[in-house]
Automatic annotation (TrEMBL):
Residues 56-367 form the Peptidase M60 domain. Residues 1-22 form the signal peptide. This is PRTRC system protein C. Keywords: Signal. It holds the Pfam family Peptidase_M60. It comes from Bacteroides caccae. The keyword Signal applies. InterPro entries: M60-like_N (IPR035423), Pep_M60_3 (IPR042279), Peptidase_M60_dom (IPR031161), TCAF (IPR051244). The keyword ATP-binding does not apply.
Length: 563
């Protein structure tokens, strides 16, 4: 009997050993023992770059804990640094607890369910070595690391997950997305998914000058899936469940580029120098519009989205036409221009997309049209960001911040852009209580406007006098500096107060202008209401006398009527 008991114990030991070996050989077993790296404190990174906080969930353990779990964390040499286990639940009833760790064995009673992260933030991050930690207890959920894993591991992680959240580690951004969403929308291409997110962040870092000036932080950006809404907060970016059909799908993510860049852009807004009153939803969108131009060039929001043009005409390019007609033609102040999202009460804060137009024109002119031309300055925004990062803005009011932007722009490109700034409504006297998430005063005086005009006069004027007419639809005409080609009265179709101009007859046009005698009454961006940009819909109400085609150099060519 004694021999039988010994035999049984031996067999059980072999089975246990085999089981242990099987677990150790599985793709998820390495999560039990890892080396965790140090990261710069979030506040230090935010203060240095003048941005919002990056990722507070660095160092995912890949271990899921339940409330009441008894766990042991064996911590290697901490080098005198403070480390902690953070357990956070992203679903249901949100819970978050932090457990300080010391060298050696740490026995913990976990208070809440959630995934584990090792807090290792220190000002000495560049000097300290990674710390080895062994975790006993909890369940292995795993995480996907772009640098280590392939789509084979991705599929295994989704199948073996014990928690409905999976951590995804990219080069510049980490995600915490629901396993149910990933199984549904991205069952096989995890590497490609996180790589696309990395591209978006890389574009933003380049625009911000973090690459040019060697300022890219070790900290990652962060996004997680939430029940509702699209927003940015102290954690990072947040994207709703019902958006995952785009944002978690490799096949459809290009359709969500604007939203992704927009929310990450909020985190990366440089404040206050590039984020003053009434620009909270504007200067982040310079990231969105540029990212979409690079990654989704066939569909541009400002030029090709069907929206109200400010005059209750739903047309492709309605946003830009609102800007052209209410900003350029009617002379409304920048930030106070009418558009689809602000048809009433826009006098103290207009349509956010319309506000974006002049910033987009600067990017198009210097980064795209400037390619191969003497005025090219593809990294002007990077240089602007660096100037702002190094400017002491304490005590500056919103008007001074706006004036500084214009002054810096002239200095960066070595051109006098004051005609442009006046035309778009940016360099005009204003004294208003402006709308934003927090209302604030914006005051620019006539004297300040005159002083900036005088200051900028040291530089030559830009090659084009109609920079304010530039769009993505006409950027090639500016870049190639080519004249308008057209046949008077050719290719025109009139109908109910409009004229449709065929581009079989009219080429290289920036905009079409409609006049009533000497008065400019309407402007139509080239390609207005044309999906393939083969025509332009021009407003020609009763009493109109002529239509002019405007070239990149400001030359007008008569299309219809008499001068």
């Amino acid at each position: 009997m004694k021999k039988l008991i010994v035999f049984i114990i031996g067999i059980l030991g072999i089975i246990s050993s085999m089981s242990s070996q099987t677990n150790d050989a599985s793709p998820i077993s390495p999560y039990r023992v890892q080396y965790y790296e140090a990261y710069p404190p979030l506040k230090e990174t935010a203060q240095r770059l003048k941005i919002s906080n990056y990722n507070s969930f660095e160092n995912p353990t890949g271990i899921y804990f339940e409330a009441g779990d008894e766990v042991v964390l064996t911590v290697g040499d901490t080098q005198g640094q403070q480390l902690a286990l953070r357990v956070h639940s992203f679903e249901g009833e949100k819970s978050d607890h932090t457990y300080p760790l010391q060298l050696g064995e740490n026995r913990l009673a976990i208070k809440n369910k959630g995934l584990g992260y090792i807090n290792f933030f220190t000002s000495d991050w560049a000097k300290v070595a990674p710390v080895r930690i062994r975790i006993e207890g909890g369940k292995v959920n795993g995480y996907f690391d772009k640098k280590q894993h392939t789509d084979k591991e991705w599929k295994q992680l989704l199948e073996q997950a014990v928690c409905n959240i999976l951590d995804i580690k990219g080069e510049y951004v980490n995600l915490a997305y629901r396993v149910s969403s990933l199984k549904k929308y991205c069952p096989e291409k995890g590497w490609e998914l996180i790589n696309y997110y990395d591209k978006i962040i890389d574009i933003q870092h380049e625009m911000m000058g973090l690459k040019k000036y060697n300022l890219r932080p070790k900290n990652h950006m962060f996004a997680r899936e939430v029940q509702s809404g699209l927003y940015a907060d102290g954690y990072g970016a947040a994207f709703a469940y019902d958006c995952m059909n785009k944002l978690a799908s490799v096949e459809n993510i290009h359709k969500g580029v604007w939203a992704l860049a927009h929310e990450f852009g909020h985190v990366n807004q440089i404040r206050p120098g590039l984020k003053w009153v009434s620009t909270t939803e504007v200067t982040n969108n310079i990231f969105s519009v540029w990212t979409r131009y690079l990654l989704e060039p066939d569909y541009q929001n400002l030029e090709q989205e069907r929206v109200n043009d400010g005059d209750n005409n739903r047309v492709l390019g309605g946003r830009f036409n609102s800007y052209l007609n209410y900003g350029i033609v009617k002379g409304e102040q920048w930030l106070c221009q009418r558009g689809q999202d602000k048809m009433k009460g826009y006098e103290n804060g207009g349509d956010h997309f319309v506000k974006l137009c002049p910033l987009w024109q600067l990017q198009l002119y210097y980064a795209v049209a400037g390619h191969g031309n003497y005025w090219g300055k593809p990294d002007w925004f990077a240089d602007m960001a660096e100037i702002v990062r190094n400017t002491d803005e304490k005590g500056m009011d919103n008007g001074q911040l706006q004036l500084n932007f214009m002054r810096n722009m002239c200095d960066l490109v070595k051109e006098d852009l004051t005609d442009f700034f006046i035309k778009v409504g940016m360099l005009k006297p204003i004294d208003k209580d402006m709308d934003d998430y927090s209302r604030a005063q914006l005051t620019i005086t006539k004297k300040q406007c005159k002083e900036l005009v005088k200051y900028a006069s040291r530089y030559p004027k830009p090659a084009t006098p109609v920079l304010y007419y530039l769009t993505a639809n006409s950027v090639k005409s500016y870049q190639r500096r080519i004249p308008v080609e057209g046949v008077y009265n050719g290719g025109l179709t009139f109908k109910e107060g409009t004229c449709t101009v065929s581009h079989d007859y009219w080429r290289n046009v920036t905009v079409f202008e409609t006049y009533k005698g000497k008065e400019l009454t309407h402007v139509a961006m080239v390609g207005t209401d044309s999906p393939d940009r083969s025509t332009t819909l021009v407003r020609f109400p009763e009493g109109s006398t002529r239509i002019e085609a405007v070239a990149w150099d400001g030359t007008r060519t008569l299309v219809y009527g008499k001068r």
